[in-house]
Amino acid sequence: MNNPDSQLNTNGIEQKNGLPEQKELMVSFLWLFIPASLLLASIFYIFSTQTEEYELQTTLIREESALNSAAELTSLLFEQKLSDLLVLAEGEVLKNYLHDEHAKNWIRVAREFSLFARRKPKYFQLRFIAADGMEVVRINNSDNVQQIVPKTALQNKSSRYYFQESIKLDEGDIYISPLDLNIEEGVIEQSIKPTIRFATPVVDGYGEKRGILILNYTPDELLQRIADNFKALKGNAVMLNNNGYWLLGAPDEQLWGFMYGNDKTFAKQWPEAWAAVSSSEKGTFLSDDGIFVFHKAYPLNRENLGTAENIEKTVETIESRSGDRYWIYLSHITNNLIADLTAKRMVVATVITYLLLFLVSGLISVFFARNNVQKKLAFRQLQQYATTDWVDRSCQSARIG
Question: Rounded CA gap, 268 and 272, in Å?
Answer without folding.
Answer: 9
